[in-house]
Design a protein that fits this description.
The complex is a heterodimer. Chain A is an all-beta fold. Chain A contains no helices and 11 strands. Chain B is mostly beta strands. The chains are: A mainly beta, B mainly beta. At the A-B interface, strand 5 of A face strand 5 and strand 9 of B.
Chain lengths: 109, 116
């Protein structure tokens, strides 16, 4: 079956760095996505990885290892507004998104 | 980036009534649209995939006669929750993608449905 695993909840301190991991097993692979979702809002796109390696975009970076079925989202210089759920999703061979349950990130001052 | 709108953003209705939610792609042709449902503190659950001009494909456990999906044009898909009940109260989100960029889904802002 298809499966996406990520931690349920993480806590970090304002100004610090946090890494949210995601492991996956899917039928086919057409890329891995990270989305941010604030409570009561729709997800917003953060990153897309289809090749191995690190993609950096400002304070956020995303890493992918296809051989290990593994990705992480790295958030630097955390701000209070970064408190949200972070969703890992993999696009399978049918271009369908398979979603993880999301990681709720709590930022403390 | 591409824009997807949803209407209404909020709806409150009585049990037994039907509710229609619209999803529009504003600046691109969406050959495929997806309808998701999200209950509190849970992840997105795909309900159905609709391709323009054809019948929607429903995920296991989703009643197609209860959740009617119409994708009559390349910019509009509608989800109608028929005979809504309190357990249908949820956050409904649509997303859209074009044929030329199948790796990218653009999400609408979501519609919060409360059935009394």
């Amino acid at each position: 079956g298809q499966n996406i695993d990520q931690p349920t909840e993480m806590t970090a301190t304002e100004g610090a760095i946090v890494q949210i991991n995601c492991t996956y097993q899917t039928s086919g692979f057409n890329g891995l996505f990270w989305y941010q979702q604030h409570a009561g809002e729709a997800p917003t796109f953060l990153s897309y990885n289809v090749l191995d390696g690190l993609e950096e975009k400002g304070r956020f970076s995303s890493f992918l290892s296809r051989s290990k079925g593994y990705s992480y989202l790295l958030l630097k210089e955390l701000q209070m507004k970064d408190s949200a759920s972070y969703l890992c999703a993999v696009m399978d061979s049918n271009y369908q998104l398979i979603w993880g349950a999301g990681t709720k990130l709590i930022i403390k001052p | 980036g591409a824009v997807v709108s949803q209407h209404p953003s909020w709806v409150i209705c009585k049990s037994g009534t039907s509710v229609k939610i619209e999803c529009r792609s504003l600046d691109f042709q969406a050959t495929t649209m997806f309808w998701y449902r999200q209950f509190p503190k849970q992840s997105l659950m795909l309900m159905a995939t609709s391709n323009e001009g054809s019948k929607a494909t429903y995920e296991q456990g989703v009643e197609k006669d209860k959740f009617l999906i119409n994708h009559a044009s390349l910019t509009l898909s509608t989800l109608t929750v028929t005979s809504a009940h309190p357990e249908d109260s949820s956050f409904y989100i649509c997303s859209a993608r074009s044929e030329s960029h199948q790796e990218t889904q653009y999400f609408g802002p979501g519609t919060r449905l409360l059935v009394l």
